[in-house]
Amino acid sequence: MLNYKQLNYFWQVARAGSIARASEQLDLTPQTLSGQIGLLEASLEATLFKRVGRGLELTETGRLALSYADEIFEIGAEMEQALSGGTVKQVTTFRVGIADVMPKSIVYSLLAPAMTLSEPIKIICREDKLDKLLGDLAIHRLDLVLSDRPMPEQLDIKGDNHKLGECGISFFATPALAVKYQEGFPASLNQAPLLVPSLDTAMRRRLMRWFDAERIRPQIVGEFDDSALMKAFGQAGIGIFMAPSVIASEITRQYGVVELGKTEEVQDYYYAISVERRFDHPAVAAIRDTAKQGLFTN
């Protein structure tokens, strides 16, 4: 039978990120925690952590165990509140993985419908690289992954790619830069200072193919994993940056920049990736339907 005290120690260590940090929080010695987790691994006949340098990292089995532990202790907290005379309102947890290249305003627009359902939803967002998120999706630590590209076919994961929509991209600059580079767009981008997504993004590859076709050679002055950081540099006048055309008015208003022009030749795509679960999550359909009927209608 599962020892829930040992499971709790495992849960605390996984959440804290290290045995040393968890031992301080629990006021226990690291040796005690290590011993209890060792007993749990022996009873489960599985390895939950692996050493990476001087730290610990969850194994694939450990990530699966953590997803169950999250649910177990969340339900336990609700039971404790109910039995002590409190009122408990049942809330469905919705765990979403967000590929780190996704524009935050697009993510918000996609997820907002999930918060307006008649059934209460608690949303948990995790941002990371797509391959890491798909690993968590496969072991049901996530209900959905939002990405700029579909799940690779070579992955051994039984999942579904739901295409939410697509749109062209717009280029933005401060008013001072716009004076120099707006006229004659897109040829005006030749030798212009440009801020671009990192090399491993689908958008970067599409963008460079378009530049080659148009014989445009911009001066790349910055590469970014984080689109919000790229916009901050653009707002400071370091260079011209790009964003999905569907949020162009929001970008100009929020960052005080000018839209130089846009192209439909470079498309930004958005996908919701899910796998078969023990139940159909009500938020997934809401996101898919609202994206197709609202955000990407045009």
TrEMBL record:
Where is the signal peptide, in residue numbers?
A: none
Q: Does the keyword Transcription regulation apply?
A: yes
One GO BP annotation here?
Answer: regulation of DNA-templated transcription initiation
- GO molecular function annotations of the record: DNA binding; DNA-binding transcription factor activity
Q: Which domain of life is it from?
A: Bacteria
This protein's record includes keyword Signal: no
Question: What CDD domains would the database entry show?
Answer: PBP2_NhaR
Instruction: Name the keywords, alphabetized.
Output: Activator, DNA-binding, Transcription, Transcription regulation
InterPro entries reported for this sequence: LysR_HTH_N, LysR_subst-bd, WH-like_DNA-bd_sf, WH_DNA-bd_sf
Query: Where does the HTH lysR-type domain start and stop, copy by copy?
Result: 2-59
Family per similarity comment = Belongs to the LysR transcriptional regulatory family.
* Protein name according to UniProt: Transcriptional regulator, LysR family
The scientific name of the source species is Methylotenera versatilis (strain 301)
